[in-house]
Amino acid sequence: MKKIDRNNLKTFKDFLIVEGEKVNIVFSTAKYDRSFNRNNDEGLKNIESLKVDFNVNEVVYLHQIHSDNVFVFNNNAKEFIEREGDAIVTNKENVIIGAFTADCVPVVLVDEVEGVIAAIHSGWKGTFNSITKKSIEKMIQEYGTRIENIKVYIGPHIRQCCYEVSEELKERFLDKTKIDENELFNGRNLSMERCILEDLRSLKIEEDNIYTINLCTYCEEEIKLFSYRKSVGTYGRLFTFAYKK
């Protein structure tokens, strides 16, 4: 796994961007307090503004429910955005697909060979139920993606330094994942990223094709981010997305 140096990221307005040959991966921040909460008018306006900012035709997302439901987007964004799920796969050009987060893990998958991208919202439930692994399997099933061509980008989320869970949930994760306790936990502080890495490695994803931005939504001070826990339940949302040029 490679850590992305934040200083090497392109910046545009309040976005951090990883530029690829055919695909751009974009992480929003809270620099200007611009939230992408689909449940209020301001958030919807900000989502719509992405069409102009990034010169795309559509912005596609889901009614996120902390599930392991993965959907393929082919057309009709208006109907699609009311589906209940937490991962989107597509091969459409000039269409943003994204995931809303405010502590959960945003994951973007890219297969530039077949021209396939995925955007994933992986909270503890999605992480526990291997939603990233299921999204990769969907890419293989629907578009013929090959494992060796997949690149994975893990965005800002609440990291092990700050993510304490209950003893019951700790035992469930240890029992399910079989990951060494000293890797997965620090006390009762869970590393969701370590769980996701375990799923990626089980599929033989190349270590050099896994990238992470080492930013914690809860304790990061240099770059402002939204954190549900830190704000005691206010409604700022980050939006992590990808689009094919």
Description:
This protein is of the alpha/beta class and 245 residues long. 25% of the residues lie in helices and 28% in strands. The chain contains 7 helices and 15 strands. It has helices spanning 41-53, 77-80, 124-128, 131-143, 167-177, 181-184, 192-202; strands at residues 2-4, 10-12, 15-19, 23-28, 58-60, 70-72, 87-90, 95-101, 105-111, 116-122, 150-154, 185-186, 189-190, 210-213, 238-244. A 7-stranded mixed beta sheet has the order 1-14-11-9-10-7-6. It has a 6-stranded mixed beta sheet with strand order 2-3-4-15-8-5. A two-stranded antiparallel ribbon has the order 12-13. The longest helix is centred in the N-terminal third of the chain and has 13 residues, at 41-53. The protein is globular. The two termini are 26 Å apart.
Quick take:
By secondary structure, this protein is an alpha/beta fold. The protein contains seven helices and 15 strands. The protein is 25% helix and 28% strand.
Question: Share of helix among residues?
Answer: 10-25%
Q: Describe the biggest sheet? A: 7 strands, mixed
Give the class-level CATH name: Alpha Beta
The span between the termini is 26 Å
Rounded average pLDDT = 97
SSE order: EEEEHEEHEEEEHHEHHEEHEE
In percent, how much strand structure appears in the residues?
A: 25-35%
Number of domains: 1
CATH T-level fold name:
CNF1/YfiH-like putative cysteine hydrolases
CATH superfamily caption: CNF1/YfiH-like putative cysteine hydrolases
Query: What's the total count of β strands?
Result: 15
Derived structural class:
alpha/beta
- At CATH level 2, the architecture is 4-Layer Sandwich
Uncertain ranges? none
Spatially, the strands of the biggest sheet line up as 1-14-11-9-10-7-6
Shape: globular
Alpha-carbon Rg, integer: 17 Å
List the total number of helices: 7
